Automatic annotation (TrEMBL):
Listed PROSITE patterns: HTH_LACI_1, HTH_LACI_2
Keywords: DNA-binding, Repressor, Transcription, Transcription regulation
RNA-binding recorded as keyword: no
Ranges where the HTH lacI-type domain occurs: 4-60
Xref: SUPFAM superfamilies: lambda repressor-like DNA-binding domains, Periplasmic binding protein-like I
SMART domains: HTH_LACI (SM00354)
Protein name as catalogued: LacI family transcriptional regulator
Database matches in InterPro entries: HTH_LacI (IPR000843), LacI/GalR-like_sensor (IPR046335), Lambda_DNA-bd_dom_sf (IPR010982), Peripla_BP_I (IPR028082)
Signal peptide, first to last residue: none
Species of origin: Lentzea aerocolonigenes (Lechevalieria aerocolonigenes)
Top-level taxon of the source organism: Bacteria
GO MF entries: DNA-binding transcription factor activity; transcription cis-regulatory region binding
Length: 342
């Protein structure tokens, strides 16, 4: 098989090999007209020219690879949209993503960083499955970008969901529908979830702005799964004055709240309005009725992290970028019943 050379492209396009090199290697030169650049690209495609990636990396000092180290994100469909966002930007810029899933093993993480540094990848992204504060591992490059996590000591570009604002949006949706007895089904403190504190702060802020006195009995904690949500909701529905609405820490707890409501003979949303958080695939939209929820912006965070890693946008290393969490309005919210038992 005869290897097509850069000289073959130059001959077909009627330009020098230097011009072909600058065009195909993305060198910004005002001396080459857009028409000539297009002619070179068309000639390269016509003759089947494929750049030698090793030679190009030696010339440009770029490997066109980005390392993405994660904890359990790669094996978790729930957060797969982060990978999609990062990969889309990388592909648009002609880069390949090298993904390493460490399962939160410190030794696997150390080996991954050593291997990526040895390969001289152009950039590194350090990602987590859920929003948390992390100790930056030794060996992580200074210009690495943190995705869905924030460094304990600051000093790194990072992107996380705006959890507090998402909590405000969720509770405002319930207040706007006329609810005053609004419960918050929260995750147990033993899980040490950053999102739990921030979403609760958003809940309290909206109650304050609406002139609603928080009732400690309406803040209940449970394991952040469907069973935990069911048990927490049952406790709330057994109160002498039950809530007319529930804001749930996540969609799985909301699913449990649906089950508790049905067990008590209540209809969602006629008797009880429910708002979740996450917009989890195969959960939120599949409930009956479909769940109004707050979406975690996984795809947008993945894109942002890769854009910063590749120098396409700037980031403040001292303050994590807060990505908006939009409301996904479905059918689980309505005005409260005029009286209990209606």
């Amino acid at each position: 098989m005869v290897r097509v050379r850069m000289a073959d492209v130059a001959a077909r396009a009627g330009v020098s090999t230097a011009t072909v090199s600058m065009v195909l290697n993305g060198v910004n030169s005002t001396r080459i007209s857009p028409q000539t650049q297009q002619r070179v690209r068309e000639a390269a495609e016509a003759v089947g020219y494929k750049p030698n990636s090793v030679a190009r990396s030696l010339r440009t000092q770029q490997t066109r690879m980005v390392g993405l180290i994660s904890d359990t994100i790669a094996s978790t469909p729930f957060a797969g949209r982060m990978l999609a966002g990062a990969n889309d930007v990388a592909r648009e810029q002609g880069h390949l993503v090298v993904l390493v899933d460490t399962e939160r093993d410190a030794e696997a993480e150390r080996q991954a960083l050593h291997a990526l540094n040895g390969q001289q990848v152009d950039a590194v992204i350090y990602a987590c499955m859920w929003h948390r504060v992390v100790e930056v591992p030794p060996g992580l490059p200074e210009d690495a970008v943190l995705l869905d996590c924030a460094p304990a000591g600051g000093g790194r570009a990072a992107v996380v969901p705006d959890e507090r604002a998402g909590g405000r949006v969720a509770v405002r949706e319930l207040v706007a529908a006329g609810h005053r007895r609004i419960a918050f089904l929260d995750a147990e403190e033993r899980f040490e979830l950053v999102a739990s504190r921030l979403r609760y702060e958003g809940y309290l802020e909206v109650l304050a702005e609406a002139g609603i006195e928080p009732d400690p009995a309406l803040h209940v904690r449970a394991e952040p799964v469907a069973g935990g949500g069911r048990d927490a909701a049952r406790r709330l529905l057994d109160l002498p004055e039950r809530p007319t609405a529930m804001f749930c820490f996540n969609d799985r707890m909301a699913m449990g709240a649906y089950a508790a409501a049905h067990h008590c003979g209540l209809s969602v949303p006629r008797d009880l309005s429910i708002v979740g958080y996450d917009d989890q695939q195969l959960v939120a939209a599949e409930l009956d009725p479909p769940l109004t929820t707050i979406a975690l912006p996984h795809y947008e965070m993945g894109r942002w992290a890769m854009e910063v890693a590749l120098g396409l946008r700037q980031a403040d290393p001292e303050v994590p970028h807060l990505m908006p969490c939009p409301l996904i309005r479905r059918a689980s919210v309505s005005p409260p019943p005029t009286q209990f038992g209606d």
